[in-house]
Amino acid sequence: MRIGILQTGRSPDEIIGKHGDYDDMFKRLLDGRGFEFETYKALDSVLPQSVRDADGWLITGSKFGAYEDHDWIPPLENFLREVFDAGVPIVGVCFGHQILAQALGGKVEKFSGGWAVGPSDYVKTDGSKETIMAWHQDQVTVLPEGATVIGSNDFCENAMLAYGSTALSVQPHPEFTPEFFADLLQARGDVLPGDIAQDAKARMDAALTSKDYADRFEEFFKRDRSS
Questions:
Q1: Residues that are catalytic
Q2: Is 36 helix (H, G, I), strand (E, B) or coil?
Q3: Could you report the per-residue pLDDT of 67-97, keeping only the tens digit for each?
Q4: Which domain range does residue 101 map to?
């Protein structure tokens, strides 16, 4: 199965040699599951010719805001609407979660409550708990039509969304390893309030459930949609 990665951000220059770029992290997360990958650097205005150029699409995270005025964002939103209307499965993570919601009629804002950084707990609709790395201040504050909340916490009400069988998106980062996160704090921690960065460092040994999301993404992409 071919997955097209829509890359909307880049790993910091200081650590890209050690950890790879954002698309590389998803390739590692989903390694050994029968996927082939092709990356399209959406943030450089490189988009696929057709929604059928891949069997499924994955939108990465980014340091940019979905609501910011960048010339590559409107074409990306148009493409996502075309993918969604065609019923090709989409997974969005962090910025990908936000830009998909915005493209489909939702709203993304800089959250007045501050930042979520580091291992964070989320409760799914079945009552089970996930612990995944977070790094965000922006949030989906108004749901688009057809979106259902499937996971949340007190800080982020709309943290995990499902759009029927067509799209699945999550605010936190299952692709972030503790090693990458520690280096990201070193490289980009100056954008964070000091207490937030310190608190994140203190929780670095939390057990993550990232593999559960690799399983979930695999199941979602491979789901039978023939009926």
A1: 94, 173, 175
A2: strand
A3: 999 999 999 999 999 999 999 999 999 999 9
A4: 2-110+138-175+210-222
